[in-house]
Amino acid sequence: MSEAGGGRGCGSAVPQRAPWNLLATTAALYLVMATSVWTAGAAPMSREEKQKLGNQVLEMFDHAYGNYMEHAYPADELMPLTCRGRVRGQEPSRGDVDDALGKFSLTLIDSLDTLVVLNKTKEFEDAVRKVLRDVNLDNDVVVSVFETNIRVLGGLLGGHSLAIMLKEKGEYMQWYNDELLQMAKQLGYKLLPAFNTTSGLPYPRINLKFGIRKPEARTGTETDTCTACAGTLILEFAALSRFTGATIFEEYARKALDFLWEKRQRSSNLVGVTINIHTGDWVRKDSGVGAGIDSYYEYLLKAYVLLGDDSFLERFNTHYDAIMRYISQPPLLLDVHIHKPMLNARTWMDALLAFFPGLQVLKGDIRPAIETHEMLYQVIKKHNFLPEAFTTDFRVHWAQHPLRPEFAESTYFLYKATGDPYYLEVGKTLIENLNKYARVPCGFAAMKDVRTGSHEDRMDSFFLAEMFKYLYLLFADKEDIIFDIEDYIFTTEAHLLPLWLSTTNQSTSKKNTTSEYIELDDSNFDWTCPNTQILFPNDPLYAQSIREPLKNVVDKSCPRGIIRVEESFRSGAKPPLRARDFMATNPEHLEILKKMGAASSIDAEDGLRFMQEMIELSSQQQKEQQLPPRAVQIVSHPFFGRVVLTAGPAQFGLDLSKHKETRGFVASSKPYNGCSELTNPEAVMGKIALIQRGQCMFAEKARHIQNAGAIGGIVIDDNEGSSSDTAPLFQMAGDGKDTDDIKIPMLFLFSKEGSIILDALREYEEVEVLLSDKAKDRDPDMENEEQPFSESDSQNQSAEPLAPGSQEVDLGDHESPEDSSLDSPPESSPAAAADEAADVSPSEQNSDPLENHEPPSLDGECTDLDNQLQEQSETEEDSNPNVSWGKKDQPIDSILADWNEDIEAFEMMEKDEL
Ligand code: DMJ
User: Fold this and answer.
1) Whether the CB of 295 sits within 6 Å of ligand 1
2) Distance CA 890, CA 754 (A)
3) Which residue has the higher pLDDT, 727 or 617?
4) Residue 90 pLDDT greater than 50, yes or no
5) Which of 95, 486, 703, 768 has the fewest CB atoms nearer than 10 Å to its CB?
């Protein structure tokens, strides 16, 4: 048994807590080498260019933070499309995602230490005063323990850490007397009842006022939690203990970690995604490094760095070895089963795993970090952002992107480690894309669908806590930051905790250091951290040489398959039977099926794939009957294409995916429901008519506006408050008759999105929109005024929103259309809506609601046939180290023995995910 902080690891080679310092020093050396012999790859970036980009980040932060403070504070979050605060209970519930909102001014608390990193010390001082004056932590709200810990407790502790640093410097925060820490302690005590389980794993939710047990708590019946939810507490809880001397927090967090470690699957050393908090049984046995598990691994390594306890490093290394053995298939990271780790659990990856290259940098394993990061960057280049999930052949699986910071985080750490200016260029692209596609007059809006470019009325607090920190630090030189960032560790929410905590109150907290300590076979591990040999080889072009073969991995995924299948046909080999070709009436197919799993390992492999495909195919076929969502982009002043609304398509009229987009000014039809001949044809002639849903068929409305000369139509939901954030989008079906006579494009908007147009029409009178399958870039046609960011803006670092036009946009209080000067649309009675649903609205009766996150691929160049061909040639990929993902050498017999069980597991997961 080795002693905490001594012996192996960083402690032996360099002083405790050395990773960041070592990283910085070695990176600096490396930079010197790199700049002197640079011959190829990305050109070094000048100091001026870096400063310009840093200033651009500052201006973007001002736009996000300024709009939050002006239009949303003290609410938890900003709704950037409607320019108001998101108050829980006042908006339609979004399910679990709302559990981060505790009516405690979440965004303000999450932004505290970002203000200091970005040199906004004065604003920090104001923000701390506001937190102390306004924030109440005793609300009767059920919140997520995990989110409250990482965002609020972490935010308060990060704020406290930098407040005492500033106070010590002697200029700012001289009045500060640990008030944030007192709030953090109060919150810590509020979270503790969640740990009242036999396992010591916390309940996933807690009522801030009533805890868990009281009847008023409305929580405490849950049986499961995610591994990350239970395993991402130690940094904040230990910091709280060490700052205050109250050891209980660190003890509880350690106990939860000890339990998870005990429950790891002993042969694979992996953990599942969800666990029963009472029995400790794994509920979901799939395992990856993304959603549900991610920060558990992160906290094991960082707990070692912060606390200097060897047991955390050993656990991390044990898991890391398993991850690299089973989950890592460079450049991919694919989920597997904990009991059968050679078997992939899914064929797609989620966006949260983008943090992993950054963690690998901290571990010192830089090659796979470079590879995965490069693969992710290729996906981003294709879709502008990382979709929430994407397949192994890089098609969109879930199309949202809530402005997640993980990729920026990894980019920052890779730049720190390699000094390769390529990563600065990557950061520049991220900035450009945010300004081009996510910036709206009132902040930055999450992407609802990266393919259409449509927005969601959402700006999560982590965007301010993390994204701006990592982007700013990426371009900052040491002298651009008022303190030494190397003295701190980043929590998973990028809050800063000082490394000196490891030597504070150690005696009290160490008494609960993991007692059972297993001597592990560590022959595979390199116990230095970071591993400088791997991290900084003597070649300044090292990172580039790893990235180069992956440059076209996304674009080439389809053509590569075609070439291989041609080769396979030339060689006379018969292609394996694929699920999509299978016909139960074909005797040859039945014969092949019988052979699968019996004759050879190749047949068996084909068999396994066949079954997997069958399952995927059936769910895909359901989805393929649906049309993908469309976009309504407001292009006139002051929107200039920046606001993009998600719209439902119609099964009739002009197909926007096949034709050029339709652009025109909007006008309300009279009657507003469009159910009879329009009485205001002159108003809608040559325009895009707005019509209210209800009282007749969609096709009938389309005919009436077409007859009046409209060039397109937007049907707005009559169900007040409906929104694509909370309701599944659907397609408007025809009327059961021939609809070929309808030539104009028709799109559907839920009431919330529709009211954005109606409000704009009320305010600006002339509102021009673009109906399309994908939002168009904001070009000079759309925006004949200045760009969202100009160089002169970059000099302005005030907290005022700077977007041109943003001061003119007031999308605030929504009046209903009937209050407006527009045509008075008839009031929709609940009865009328019910009638329509029951008798008239065929879309709701007949067509499946669109799963807006998972429509068929829009990637023209990567058709299903291409994918099929690619898969057909999978065996040939083995010879190419750059494309060899998906192959394992587990005996096929053992896989087949459990065939049925696996199929059930796949089906279960499909259900879970849907
Ligand atoms: C952040 O809140 C944290 O990084 C968390 O660990 C998971 N990811 C979100 C942002 O995507």
Assistant:
1) yes
2) 54
3) 727
4) yes
5) 95
pLDDT at 560 over 90: no
Average pLDDT for 239-245:
97
| pLDDT (0 to 100) of residue 892 | 43
| Residue 638, pLDDT score | 85
Beta-ladder partners of 225? 275
pLDDT at 553: 80
- Helix, strand, or coil here: 816? coil
> What's the pLDDT at 725?
76
Report how far residue 201's alpha carbon sits from residue 193's, in angstroms, rounded to the nearest whole number.
Answer: 11
Ligand 1 within 6 A of CB of 410: no
User: Is residue 455 a contact partner of residue 403, using CB atoms and an 8 Å limit?
Assistant: no
Q: Is 631 helix (H, G, I), strand (E, B) or coil?
A: strand
Q: Is the CB of 492 under 6 A from ligand 1?
A: yes
CB 297 near ligand 1, within 6 Å: no
Q: What is the pLDDT of residues 706-733, one digit of tens each?
A: 999 999 999 999 888 888 877 777 889 8
**857-864, long-range: CB < 8 A, 24+ apart:** 857/395, 857/396, 858/396, 858/451, 858/628, 858/657, 858/773, 858/774, 859/382, 859/395, 859/396, 861/555, 861/558, 862/393, 862/394, 862/395, 862/557, 862/558, 863/558, 864/580
Does position 682 have pLDDT exceeding 60, yes or no? yes
Of 388, 456, 661, 768, the catalytic one is 388
Indicate the DSSP class of residue 764.
Answer: H
Average pLDDT on 140-155 reads: 98
Residue 502 has φ and ψ, to the nearest 5°, of: -65, -25
Residue 812's SS3 state is coil
pTM assigned to the model: 0.68
Residue 351 CA, closest ligand 1 atom number: 11
What is the tens place of the pLDDT at every residue in 250-262? 999 999 999 999 9
Angle, CA 752 vertex, CA 751 and CA 757 arms, to 5°: 90
Ligand 1 atom index nearest CA of 461: 2
* Mean pLDDT, residues 218-226: 95
Range 877-895 average pLDDT = 36
Which ligand 1 atom is the nearest neighbour of the CA of 406?
A: 11
> What is the per-residue pLDDT for 135?
98
Quick check: is 741 catalytic? no
Tell which atom from ligand 1 comes closest to the C-alpha of 228. 6
DSSP-assigned letters across all residues of 509-531: HHTTS-S--PPP--TT---SSS-
- Within the chain, what is the greatest distance between any pair of CA atoms? 87
Given 77, 309, 406, 661, which residue is catalytic? 406
Burial 658-667 (b: 16+ CB within 10 A, else e): eeebbbbbbb
Taking the alpha carbons at both ends of the chain, their separation in whole angstroms is 46
Each residue of 828-883: pLDDT tens digit?
333 333 333 333 333 333 333 323 333 322 222 232 223 332 333 322 232 333 32
Q: How far apart are CA 714 and CA 646, in angstroms?
A: 12
Find residue 747's DSSP bridge partners.
714
Question: Residue 11, by phi and psi: left (phi above 0), alpha (psi -120 to 50) or beta?
Answer: alpha
Catalytic site includes residue 567: no
CA atoms of 400 and 406, how far apart (whole Å) = 15
Please tell me the distance between residue 406's alpha carbon and the centre of ligand 1 in angstroms.
Answer: 7
Q: Which of 123, 250, 294, 874 is catalytic?
A: 294
Q: Is the CB of 407 under 6 A from ligand 1?
A: no
